[in-house]
Design goal:
about 425 residues; mainly beta; five-stranded mixed sheet; 2 helices
């Protein structure tokens, strides 16, 4: 009986891990880090007329990355001033259902009010709009609850609209609001009960950044420290902080992420972790490697290395040996994660502007520019371009890889590339 008592939870955990590895439940994929370990023999060549399994027309732009679970693809969609939530059949491209998410959609530079990506646990799906509305749906499109954070906590004050995606953690969602350009209200973090929408905790995150520099469009990440505890990592407002997930309490802080004291140092690229190390971009300089698990001000004690050739918008990715950095201008840098030593520098993907984050899968890096061109590069210490593929359509979204297929979201369409591995 004792052995059975321990075996059943272990089997449930193993089944859960397999389910996550075969889906795309979060903006950065099954591991929340842009790395896909369960996929091989992925498509290498495609075009608007080649190797396209299906294509679904979309009525407007969104920088939100779709998510996938089973046969469902979920994505935010804009139609003029309105925002909608769609479920699309992964196998056929048929639209299963559409649900309104409200009005108030306006253009914010490249993006609009539909930027955050949804998140799912395989039973429900949660979607947050840049207008401050968080909703829970079941897979049939029934709305289960809704929250209005602006009604509850006041107007969001970012310069270019809210862009952070919610993070699923156990029984809850983590939502960050780091702002300051158009508000004097404090920045804060929320932990929300995923079943009811109730706030479990809310903590303010103080900072000394000014004007636009408090604004952060990053998505938090969760790291397991060397001691085995979990920490929430938050980046923005000239600093990086680690938080206790049970209470939200700040555990440690790294300052110096805005070394010249600029007033426009908003942050877009999100932190990415490997084991107990987190790699945190700023507005290009610096990108810092930090050992988690500290207490108090760990700016000196826990900072391992840094580089001034970080990204502005694309989030980096690591295979556990190398950190790959894609800069907005399409230059690619590779660093040894242990030492920070440059493995290669300034290599060039297809010329263009890059906002989507790179994905690492099947021993390859997939890097998509805003004009819809994906450069596929061999992972490892030698930079080698394997393929270039054009869709000839604007995109801000990160590629999604599930069951042998690549899903690309552009302004005009959702594309299924290659044949599915069922």
């Amino acid at each position: 009986m004792t052995a059975q008592r321990f075996l059943i939870p272990a089997l449930i955990l193993a089944s859960s891990l397999v389910a996550y590895s075969e889906n795309w439940p979060h903006w950065r994929g099954p591991n929340k880090n842009g790395v896909v370990t369960a996929e091989t023999n992925l498509p290498l060549k495609w075009s608007p007329t080649e190797n396209i399994q299906w294509k679904v027309a979309l009525p407007g732009r969104s920088g939100s990355t779709p998510i996938v679970w089973g046969d469902h693809i979920f994505l935010q969609v804009t139609q003029g001033g309105n925002i909608e939530f769609w479920a699309v059949d992964r196998k056929t491209g048929a639209v299963r259902w559409k649900r309104p998410l409200g009005g108030g959609n306006v253009r914010q530079m490249k993006a609009n009010m539909s930027t955050p990506s949804p998140v799912t646990d395989g039973q429900s799906v949660w979607v947050l709009t840049s207008t401050g509305l968080l909703r829970r749906f079941d897979f049939e499109g029934k709305e289960l609850w809704a929250r209005d954070f602006i009604k509850d906590h006041g107007q969001w004050g970012l310069q270019w609209g809210y862009g952070s995606s919610p993070v699923l953690y156990e029984d809850s969602l983590i939502v960050q609001v780091l702002h300051g350009m158009h508000t004097d209200a404090p920045s804060y973090l929320l932990r929300i009960d995923k079943a009811t929408g109730r706030t479990l905790w809310r903590i303010e995150r103080p900072n000394s950044a000014v004007q636009e520099s408090p604004d952060s469009y990053t998505t938090p990440t969760i790291v397991r420290t060397a001691s085995g505890s979990l920490e929430l990592i938050v980046s923005g407002a000239d600093c990086v902080t680690g938080h206790d997930l049970a209470t939200g309490r700040e555990l440690w802080r790294v300052n110096g992420m805005n070394p010249s004291g600029r007033t426009d140092y908003r942050v877009v690229a999100s932190p990415v972790a490997h084991n107990d190390i987190v790699f945190v971009p700023s507005r290009e300089r610096p990108l810092v490697a930090i050992r988690t698990g500290g207490r108090g001000d760990v700016t000196t004690s826990h900072k391992l290395w840094s580089t001034d050739l970080g990204p502005d918008v694309p989030t980096p990715v690591t295979d556990g040996k190398y950190l790959y950095i894609l800069r907005d201008n399409g230059t690619v840098y590779c660093h040894d994660i242990a030492t920070g030593a440059a493995v290669y520098s300034g290599q060039r993907a297809t010329p263009g502007t890059y906002s989507a984050s790179p994905i690492l899968a099947d021993g390859k890096l997939y890097m998509t520019s805003e004009d819809g061109t994906t450069t596929i590069v061999k992972a490892g210490p030698q930079f080698e371009i394997l393929a270039r593929n054009e869709l000839d359509d604007y995109t801000l979204s990160t590629p999604v890889i599930v069951k042998g297929q690549i899903f690309m979201r552009t302004d005009s369409a959702l594309w299924a590339i290659g044949k599915a591995r069922e």
